[in-house]
Design brief:
It is an enzyme of class 5 (isomerase). It catalyses: uridine(55) in tRNA = pseudouridine(55) in tRNA. It comes from Piscinibacterium candidicorallinum. This protein is an alpha+beta fold. The protein has three domains: 84 residues, Pseudouridine synthase, CATH 3.30.2350; 132 residues, 2-Layer Sandwich (Pseudouridine synthase), CATH 3.30.2350.10; 54 residues, PUA domain (Archaeosine Trna-guanine Transglycosylase, Chain: A, domain 4). 19% of the residues lie in helices and 35% in strands. Strands 1, 2, 3, 4, 7, 10, 11, 12 and 13 form a nine-stranded mixed sheet that branches. It has a five-stranded mixed sheet with strand order 14-16-17-18-15. The chain has a two-stranded antiparallel ribbon with strand order 5-6. It is globular. The protein starts with 22 loop residues before the first strand and ends in a 5-residue tail after the last strand.
Length: 307
């Protein structure tokens, strides 16, 4: 009688239980990793149920990427709208098809400017400017990302957008390159800014590296790497509190009764005469964000930490 090999039972993969984690991870994202990949890696380390990022950082860029978990995701839009600060490495005299080092060289010119000329060129772009988004960007047109069209050799007309350049500082300079610190409004494309400065100097330019150092009130100095996150026994302890996203807002303090009413979404009359968006605190701590006008406080986003 022929003996049959014993049947091997498939052992199902162990399912990792997701838990409710609330807070903000200030991640120092490395080069070569997309923002979504960085988010998913951090989410797996934290076993978090709910997560989101506050706007993408290009895969080849590195630096501060705030990630929101749990109830913090309610406030991610505030960082999408926040100003950003970058350190941009720029190479003069060479234009590329993408505006950065990933593209093909499409033009070369002699570099003749000095330190003063670079400073004056940078100053020309400080203030409100109209900027045309680059084809190699995640901006969508007709539901398709521009970079996808660009990869097919298709170029479409893009409307200029008004952005605000708060400051450009020359951190270092060589005959054909510079590192610029750029403090800008949301929606600003640094590669386009670098190209425009190169055109103003008459030599062209492209971006060779991009490092984001600040998003709103948050700084890369307080950020951690994925390696640091995975190395600690309790990675959730490295999360900043939810209200770190709202530190730039005026704070109002409420009583226990007012706290309970805010949690029910009720409008209050309070003594604070500030007008605008505010962060709300009660005896239990941070409650959320509201709109205050003529002493009338309307809650707009309220925490729910029952999970």
């Amino acid at each position: 009688m022929e003996l049959q090999a014993p049947t091997r039972l498939a052992i199902p993969a162990r399912r990792v239980e997701r838990v409710a984690v609330h807070g903000v991870l200030l991640l120092n994202k490395p080069r070569g990793l997309s923002s979504n990949d960085a988010l998913q890696k951090a989410r797996r380390i934290l076993h978090a149920k709910k997560a989101g990022h506050t706007g993408t950082l290009d895969p080849e860029a590195h630096g501060l990427l705030p990630l929101c978990f749990g109830e913090a995701t309610k406030f991610s839009q505030d960082l999408l709208d926040a100003d950003k600060t970058y350190e941009a490495s720029v190479r003069f005299g060479i234009k590329t098809s993408t505006g950065d080092a990933e593209g093909e060289v499409i033009a070369t010119r002699e570099v003749t400017h000095d330190q003063k000329a670079l400073q004056l060129a940078c100053e020309r772009f400080v203030g409100p400017i109209d900027q045309v988004p680059p084809m190699h960007s995640a901006l969508k047109q007709g539901g398709v990302a521009l970079y996808e069209l660009a990869r097919k050799g298709i170029e479409v007309e893009r409307a200029a957008r008004r952005v605000q350049i708060h400051a450009i500082e020359v951190l270092s300079q060589t005959p054909d390159s510079a590192v610029l610190r750029c403090h800008v409004s949301k929606g600003t494309y640094i590669r386009t800014l670098a190209e425009d400065i190169g055109e103003a100097l008459g030599c062209g330019a492209h971006l060779t590296a991009l490092y984001r150092t600040q998003v709103g009130p948050l700084s890369v100095a307080d950020a951690v790497t994925l390696e640091q996150l995975s190395a600690v026994q309790n990675p959730a302890a490295l999360l900043a509190p939810v209200d770190s996203l709202a530190q730039g807002l005026h704070a109002v303090r409420l009583s226990e009764n007012e706290q309970d009413r805010v949690r029910q979404g009720q409008r209050l009359i309070i003594t604070d005469d500030f007008d605008g968006t505010v962060r709300m605190y009660g005896p239990d701590g941070f409650l959320g964000i509201g709109q205050l006008h003529q002493r009338r406080l309307q809650p707009t986003r309220v925490l729910n930490l029952k999970e």
